[in-house]
C-alpha cells in the first residue's frame, strides 16, 4: 500500500490553539478551584507553579519532541525509540478509547443544561433533578435497567459533530474548529467572570480561595495535589501531545510552543477559579452559610451547585447559558484531541485513509459510549471509570514512559539536542534533571499515595465487586489491550516515511518541499 503524505498544521497558531484546546477541558473549570481551596488557598499557587516548571512543562516538551522527531502517533513513535516501547503507545491508545467513551456524555449533559437554564427547569432541588428526573440513575450500581432518551439523543449529536470535525482532517477540521472554539470559550468565560464578580458575596468567595495558608506547604499531600493538577490538566501522559506534534514541520519551535500552551492553560485555570469562587461566594452569602458548606467540585459543582446559584440570581438563565456553553466548548476541544490519538494510531498502523479510520474507529468509540453511558447506570460507570483510568492508567503510563526514555534507553540527551535545533528557548541541564529525577519520583509517589488511599476504603462508597468490574478492570484492561496489540506482527503500511538507521529525521514526506514546510508550523 502506498504511503500517504502526513497531514500538517496550517500554521503555528493553529497548532497552539489545538494544543491549548486539548489542555483546557472540564478539569480546568471544576477541578482546579476545588484543589486550590482544599490545599492552602493562595499558598497552593507556589507548589502549583513549581510543579508546572519541574514536571508539567518538561514532560510536555518531551512529548512534543518525540512527536515532531518521529512524525508518527504514539505506538509508532515509541517503536522508533525501541521496539518494546510500542506497548506504552498502545496502552495510551486504549486509555484514550476509554476516556472518550465517557467524556462525551458530560458534554451531552452540558448541552441539555443549556436548555434547562431557560426557566430553571431543575426546580428547587437540582441534585434530585440531576440524578432522578434527568439521569434516572439506578439505585443499584452495575445493573442496567433501561436507557435514558434525554441523554442518548444529545450524546448522539455530540458524536456526530466530533466525527465530522475529525473526518475533515487536521488542518480543515481540528485546526479550524479550535481557532473558533478557543476564542469563543475565552470570551464566554470572561463575560461569566465579570458577571460573577458583580454578585453580592463575590469578594468573600475570592478571599476563601486566595487567602494563603502557608502552613499547608509543609504537608506532602498539598504538593502531591499540585503535581497531580498540573499533570492531569496539561493533557500529558496519554499520547495527545505526541500525536498533535507529529503534524508539525521540522522547523517548529518546540519549547516556545510548550511554554505558550502551558502558561495559557494555567492562566485559564486561575480565571476559572476566580469565576467559580466568586459565584460560590454569592451562593454562601444568599444562604447565610460559610463557603466550605457550598464549595464543590466535579459533577456536584457543575450540575448541582451552579444550578442552585442560577435559580437565586437575577437573569440567572443568562449566567447558565454562559457557564454551560463554556463547559461544552471546553469539553469538545479536549474530546476531539482524545479521539484523534486513536484514529491517528490506527491510520499509522494500517495505512487507512482518514475518513474510513474516523468512521470505523470513531464509530466504535461512539457505539460503546452510547451503549454504556446513556443507560440509567451511566453516571456510576462514568464515576468509577474516570477515577481508575486517571489514577492508574494515565499517570502509570506516563511514569513508565519517562523511566524507559530517561533511564533505560537514555535518550533524553538526543531528544534535547533535537528540540534545541529549532527552539527559541534552549533546554539545559534543568530539563534532564526534571525528567530524569523529579518527574519519575513525583509520579511514583502519586501512585503510592493513591494506592494507599484506595486500600483504606472503597472509592465513592461503591461495593468491591462493582469497583473490580468497572474500575480496576478498566485500568488493567487498558494495559492488557496495549500488550496484545503490540504483539501483532508489525508491517509498515502508511504514516510517516521509513526512517534511516539511527533514528534520524529521514527524507521529507512525499510531495513536501522546503517552502511548504517553512509555511507550516
SSE layout:
Blueprint: H1 12-23, H2 26-30, H3 32-38, H4 45-70, H5 74-81, H6 86-117, H7 126-134, H8 149-167, H9 170-197, H10 202-210, H11 220-233, H12 240-245, H13 254-287, H14 298-311, H15 316-350, H16 354-373, H17 378-408, H18 412-422, H19 429-456, H20 464-486, H21 514-519
Helix pairs in contact: 1-9, 1-13, 1-15, 3-13, 4-5, 4-11, 4-13, 4-18, 4-19, 5-6, 6-8, 6-15, 6-16, 6-17, 6-20, 8-9, 8-15, 8-16, 9-13, 9-15, 10-13, 13-14, 14-15, 15-16, 17-19, 17-20
Structure description:
It is a single chain. With 521 residues, this protein is mainly alpha-helical. It has a single domain (12-491), classed as Up-down Bundle (Amino acid/polyamine transporter I). 72% of the residues lie in helices and 0% in strands. It is built from 21 helices and no strands. It has helices spanning 12-23, 26-30, 32-38, 45-70, 74-81, 86-117, 126-134, 149-167, 170-197, 202-210, 220-233, 240-245, 254-287, 298-311, 316-350, 354-373, 378-408, 412-422, 429-456, 464-486, 514-519. Helix 1 (12-23) crosses helix 9. The protein starts with 11 loop residues before the first helix and ends with a helix.
Indicate the CATH architecture: Up-down Bundle
What is the CATH C level class, in words?
Mainly Alpha
CATH topology: Amino acid/polyamine transporter I
Strand content: under 5%
- State the end-to-end CA separation: 28 Å
Low-confidence stretches: 493-521
Query: Count of helical segments?
Result: 21
Specify the CATH homologous superfamily: Amino acid/polyamine transporter I
Shape: globular
Mean pLDDT: 88
Order of H and E elements: HHHHHHHHHHHHHHHHHHHHH
Amino acid at each position: 500500500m502506498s504511503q500517504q503524505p502526513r497531514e500538517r498544521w496550517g500554521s503555528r497558531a493553529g497548532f497552539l490553539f489545538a494544543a491549548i484546546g486539548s489542555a483546557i477541558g472540564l478539569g480546568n473549570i471544576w477541578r482546579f478551584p476545588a484543589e486550590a481551596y482544599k490545599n492552602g488557598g493562595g499558598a497552593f499557587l507556589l507548589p502549583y507553579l513549581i510543579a508546572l516548571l519541574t514536571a508539567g512543562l518538561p514532560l510536555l516538551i518531551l512529548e512534543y519532541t518525540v512527536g515532531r522527531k518521529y512524525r508518527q502517533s504514539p505506538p509508532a513513535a515509541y517503536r522508533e525509540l525501541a521496539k518494546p516501547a510500542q506497548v506504552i503507545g498502545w496502552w495510551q491508545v486504549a486509555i484514550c478509547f476509554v476516556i472518550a467513551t465517557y467524556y462525551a456524555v458530560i458534554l451531552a449533559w452540558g448541552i441539555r443544561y443549556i436548555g434547562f437554564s431557560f426557566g430553571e427547569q431543575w426546580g428547587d432541588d437540582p441534585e434530585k433533578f440531576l440524578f432522578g428526573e434527568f439521569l434516572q440513575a439506578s439505585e443499584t450500581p452495575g445493573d442496567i435497567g433501561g436507557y435514558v432518551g434525554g441523554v442518548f439523543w444529545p450524546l448522539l449529536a455530540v458524536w456526530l459533530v466530533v466525527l465530522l470535525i475529525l473526518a475533515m482532517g487536521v488542518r480543515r477540521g481540528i485546526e479550524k474548529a479550535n481557532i473558533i472554539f478557543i476564542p469563543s470559550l475565552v470570551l464566554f468565560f470572561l463575560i461569566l467572570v465579570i458577571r460573577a464578580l458583580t454578585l453580592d458575596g463575590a469578594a468573600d468567595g475570592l478571599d476563601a480561595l486566595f487567602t494563603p495558608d502557608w502552613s499547608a506547604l509543609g504537608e506532602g499531600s498539598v504538593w502531591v495535589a499540585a503535581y497531580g493538577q498540573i499533570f492531569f490538566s496539561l493533557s500529558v501522559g496519554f499520547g495527545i501531545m505526541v500525536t498533535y506534534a507529529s503534524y508539525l514541520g521540522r522547523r517548529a519551535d518546540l519549547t516556545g510552543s510548550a511554554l505558550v500552551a502551558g502558561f495559557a492553560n494555567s492562566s485559564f485555570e486561575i480565571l476559572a477559579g476566580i469565576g467559580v469562587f466568586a459565584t460560590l461566594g454569592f451562593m454562601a452569602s444568599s444562604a447565610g452559610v460559610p463557603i466550605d458548606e457550598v464549595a464543590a467540585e466535579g459533577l456536584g459543582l457543575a450540575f448541582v451547585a451552579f444550578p442552585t446559584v442560577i435559580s437565586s440570581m437575577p437573569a440567572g438563565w443568562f449566567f447558565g447559558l454562559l457557564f454551560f456553553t463554556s463547559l461544552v466548548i471546553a469539553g469538545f476541544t479536549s474530546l476531539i484531541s482524545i479521539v484523534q490519538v486513536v484514529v491517528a494510531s490506527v491510520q499509522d498502523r494500517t495505512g487507512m485513509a482518514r475518513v474510513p479510520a474516523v468512521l470505523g474507529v470513531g464509530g466504535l468509540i461512539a457505539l460503546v459510549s452510547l451503549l454504556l453511558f446513556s443507560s440509567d447506570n451511566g453516571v456510576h460507570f462514568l464515576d468509577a471509570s474516570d477515577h481508575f483510568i486517571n489514577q492508574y492508567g494515565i499517570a502509570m503510563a506516563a511514569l513508565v514512559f519517562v523511566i524507559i526514555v530517561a533511564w533505560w534507553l537514555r535518550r533524553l540527551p538526543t531528544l534535547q539536542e533535537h528540540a534545541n535545533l529549532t527552539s527559541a528557548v534552549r533546554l539545559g541541564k534543568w530539563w534532564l534533571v526534571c525528567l530524569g529525577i523529579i518527574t519519575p519520583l513525583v509520579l511514583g509517589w502519586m501512585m503510592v499515595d493513591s494506592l494507599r488511599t484506595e486500600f483504606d476504603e472503597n472509592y465513592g462508597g461503591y461495593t468491591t465487586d462493582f469497583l473490580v468490574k468497572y474500575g480496576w478492570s478498566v485500568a488493567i484492561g487498558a494495559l492488557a489491550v496495549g500488550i496484545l496489540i503490540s504483539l501483532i506482527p508489525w508491517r509498515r503500511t502508511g504514516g510517516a516515511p521509513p526512517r534511516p538507521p539511527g533514528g534520524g529525521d529521514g527524507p521529507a514526506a512525499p510531495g513536501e518541499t522546503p517552502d511548504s514546510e517553512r509555511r507550516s508550523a
